[in-house]
Amino acid sequence: MTQYFNRPSEKEKRRLLRNNMPNAETVIWTRLKGKQLLGYKFRRQYSVDRYIVDFYCPELKLAVEIDGDSHYQKGSEDNDRRRQAFIESFGIQFLRFTNEDVFKNLEGVIETVRRTALEMNSRGNPL
Q1: For residue range 41-87, what is the model confidence (pLDDT) as tens digits?
Q2: pTM exceeds 0.85
Q3: CATH number 3.40.50.720 given to 8-122
Q4: Where in the chain are the domains?
Q5: CA of 15: how far to CAs of 8, 9, 49, 54, 83, in Å?
Q6: Dist CA 63 CA 44 (whole Å)
């Protein structure tokens, strides 16, 4: 599946994004890394074809995206919609939060991810 997931051609871009994560992503990562969320392993800056999602749990096929300032520029909404539809075409569920959500309601964001993971697990989401 490397033809679509974490392609070698995107490796440098993923590394650059990991090394320059915005504050909101850093805050979320401290709560997702090390299997802290129900024992699920999340990866940061995971690529699906030419797109990179902020956080991804392969076991659940769950992507978590934190929308910062770049998502509110002209044309970004259409690009985000196309990008999300493409990623979802692989059976990946998408959760979106804003920087503001993270900074003002971190526990609510984490609870939403936790609840979604539990729901996906109860449906027997395939690996």
Answers
A1: 999 999 998 899 999 999 999 999 998 765 455 667 888 899 999 99
A2: no
A3: no
A4: 8-122
A5: 11, 12, 16, 12, 20
A6: 10
